Structures are given as structure tokens and as C-alpha cells.
Amino acid sequence: MAGYQITRSTGEAQGGGEEKTFxxxxxxxxxxxxxxxxxxxxxxxxxxxxxxxxxxTVGIDYKTKIVKMGSExxxxxxxDTAGQERFRTLTNAYFRGAAGALLLYDITNxxxxxxxxxxxxxxxxxxxxxxxxxxxxxxxDAEDERVVxxxxxxxxxxxxxxxFFEASAKIGQNVSDVFMKLAERIKKTQSSSANQKSNKNSSxxxxxxxxxxxxxxxxxxxxxx
Length: 225
Ligand SMILES: Nc1nc2c(ncn2[C@@H]2O[C@H](COP(=O)(O)OP(=O)(O)OP(=O)(O)O)[C@@H](O)[C@H]2O)c(=O)[nH]1
Ligand SMILES: [Mg+2]
Description:
Elements: E1 24-31, H1 38-47, E2 60-69, E3 72-81, H2 88-93, E4 100-106, H3 110-114, H4 116-126, E5 132-138, H5 150-159, E6 163-167, H6 175-221
Parallel strand pairs: 1-3, 1-4, 4-5, 5-6
Antiparallel strand pairs: 2-3
The structure holds guanosine-5'-triphosphate and magnesium ion (MG).
Guanosine-5'-triphosphate (GTP) binds at residues 34-40, 52, 54-57, 82-84, 138-139, 141-142, 168-170.
InterPro entries: P-loop_NTPase, Small_GTP-bd, Small_GTPase, Small_GTPase_Rab
GO molecular function: GTP binding; GTPase activity
Protein name: Ras-related protein Rab-1
């Protein structure tokens, strides 16, 4: 990976005086073609700022934000990937360990929508099998330039059993909703896999218990009394 610049700006500083304690940490990725607005959407969510100038991401970056989910404080560690093809190998390396991904396309750019299937292939290939995905049709403020319909976006999301939103960092539409929906999905997935684990453990204990009487019987049968 020589030659790649990996910047890790910490969004924690943006929390200002916010307490740094949290109960869980969720690692998320923002993926999609270059210029769909990944960095802009993340910056709007974490810092509530919007930049109209395009500064293509070089390498990878992350920001964090602590959110409340019920009584829990959850730290979202959100990795902002570079959409340019030349960074694809680097991006793929960051899929491992991610609990969720926001897949963005630009509603004014059909190829960014078509390429979602390639991004989903990368997710399948490199991420954990129970990664949660939310698909976002971004820049929905630009209705005059729209070339991808909402129905097409919905169909794509249905196909991948993902949640779907149209959002705009520019006008602040559905910005926190997309991140919070992904966080909710992660929470659900993690609690159901924790339940499955504890069920497995308890059925293992049950089967041990079931084994015990037979062991006792055997002992009984060896008993000469
Ligand atoms: N109309 C509109 N433009 C937006 C919106 N969000 C971002 N943009 C513009 O889209 C361009 C690209 O935004 P970026 O956030 O840098 O794109 P990116 O996906 O991070 O691109 P890479 O870092 O190259 O992968 C910028 O000029 C933004 O101002 C939006 O909600 N509406
Ligand atoms: Mg970027």
C-alpha cells in the first residue's frame, strides 16, 4: 500500500465538551463511487457543515460521533472511503470488522447507481456475512437533474434486503436518519447473534445435563449393591 496516504482525523474533537464515555462501538463504512457525496454526508452528520467544493478523498479517513440509543451511549466510528478505482484494494481491506455499510449513489448519476452491484459484490466478498447495509440515493435536492427514480432505488434495496433512503447533505434531508437506521440495524443484528450464542450455550448445557443421567445410570449399572 506504499504511496497511499491514510489520514485518520478524529471526529471526537468535534464533540467539544461532550463526555467521552460510551457503552458500545459500531464500526461503519461509507462506500460508493467517487463524487456521490460520501465525505459531504459524513461531514454534515458529524459536524453539521456543508462544503460545495469537491475534494476527492485520498486513501481513507474516519470520524466518530457518540449517539444515544435508548439508554445506551454508542460510539459510531465511521470510515470515509475513497470512491476512486485506484483506492479499491485499500478500501476492500477496511471491510473486515465493519458492522455496517452505507452504500451511496447519486440520483443525478446513473453509472453510480449501476455500480452499486459491484459495491455489493465487494461487500459480499470482503465483509463479514452479517454486515448490515443501508442504501442511500444521495443529492435528492437536485430534483431537476434526477436520472434515477425513487422506485428504482427501492427495488435495488429490496433486492439486497437493505434499508433505503433518499437523502441530501446539501439541504440536510434524512442525514441523521440514514446513520441512525444503520446503527439500529447493527444493534438488532448484534443482539440476535448474542441470543443465538446464549441459546447454543444453554442447549449445550442442556445436553450435558441430559448426558449426566446416563452417566449416572452407567455408574448405577456398575453398582453391585
Ligand atoms: N446537489 C448536491 N450536491 C452534493 C451533495 N452532497 C455533496 N454534493 C457535492 O458532490 C461533490 C462530491 O462530494 P464528496 O462528498 O467529496 O464526494 P465523495 O463521494 O466523498 O467522493 P470521493 O472522495 O472521491 O470518493 C461535491 O462537489 C459536493 O459539494 C448534496 O446533497 N446535494
Ligand atoms: Mg470523499
